[in-house]
Specification:
Elements lengths: L1 H24 L1 H4 L11 H27 L16 H27 L2 H12 L14 H8 L1 H5 L7 H18 L22 H10 L10 H5 L7 H10 L19
Keywords: Membrane, Transmembrane, Transmembrane helix
Protein name: Sterol desaturase family protein
InterPro entries: Fatty_acid_hydroxylase, Sterol_Desaturase_Related
Length: 261
């Protein structure tokens, strides 16, 4: 229960802060800059929160299994920070983020296969116009897949508990940003020599709206290498970040909830 409360509070605090700022406090002022002009319905918010709460419980179970059971006797986790030092701690955090991005891209694409989509991934894609609460809105089977990244990584990289905790906070913040509904990066960031490789809220919002393309999490390397970036991504990013006129909902939006590769 204690571990579950930690996961649950992290979700409620991070998603709640962004939701209060953008959907209440600054809603009127920023409405014209929203990626999709419409707002989620209350039923959508309740669904997102309900599934996310269940996801935190699954994450807690996986965390307990990692730290309490005999798994730790066989992986590369270490207890004393001084064993590897701060330089390695920072490196392992970055390596974990890159590893997770790769893991997410390929498992995400796999769940878009028609044989898996309706069973595992449709729940998340019911949020065609996501809010911050959608960050953890997964079917339980998808939640298990998402939770396995840390146990898997612990057999590849020596990891300290502090590194894992920092990673989980970073993952939560970036995940909420991806589902925010507003773009936080500045205009032309998508064309910056570094920024063009980072995933954005516009990028992931398009994935929810249209169901195809833009499968990455933190970075856009795999989407670029695998030619799965939506061709209208750059134009949409420029429009959202440089104009005060809201983006019109495209006629081929994912209202039919059909799975695609």
């Amino acid at each position: 229960m204690a571990v579950w409360m930690i996961h649950l509070l992290r979700y409620l605090v991070v998603a709640g802060i962004f939701y209060v700022i953008y959907y209440y406090w600054r809603r009127s002022r920023l409405a014209s800059q929203k990626i999709q002009p419409r707002f989620p319905k209350n039923d959508d918010l309740r669904r997102e929160i309900g599934y996310s709460v269940a996801t935190t419980a699954i994450f807690a179970l996986v965390s307990v299994a990692l730290f309490v059971t005999g798994i730790r006797d066989h992986n590369l986790m270490y207890a004393h920070w001084s064993d590897y030092g701060t330089a390695y701690g920072l490196f392992s955090f970055g390596a974990l983020v890159v590893l997770h991005d790769t893991y997410f891209y390929w498992t995400h694409r796999a769940m878009h296969h028609p044989r898996l989509f309706k069973t595992m991934h449709l729940v998340h894609h019911k949020s065609t116009n996501p809010s911050p609460w959608a960050a953890y809105a997964f079917h339980p089977l998808e939640a298990v897949v998402e939770a396995l990244i840390v146990p898997i990584a612990s057999f590849i990289l020596p990891l300290h508990g502090y590194t894992i905790m920092a990673f989980l906070v970073f993952m939560m913040v970036y995940n909420v940003y991806g589902h925010l509904g507003w773009e936080l990066f500045p205009a032309h960031w998508n064309r910056h020599r570094l920024g063009r490789w980072l995933n954005t809220s516009v990028n992931h919002n398009q994935h929810h709206q249209f169901f195809r393309g833009n499968y990455g999490l933190y970075f856009r390397f795999w989407d670029e290498w695998m030619d799965t970036t939506r061709p209208d991504y750059d134009a949409t990013f420029e429009r959202v970040t440089t104009q005060s006129v809201p983006q019109k909902l495209d006629a081929d939006s994912a209202s039919t909830l059909q799975p695609t590769h």
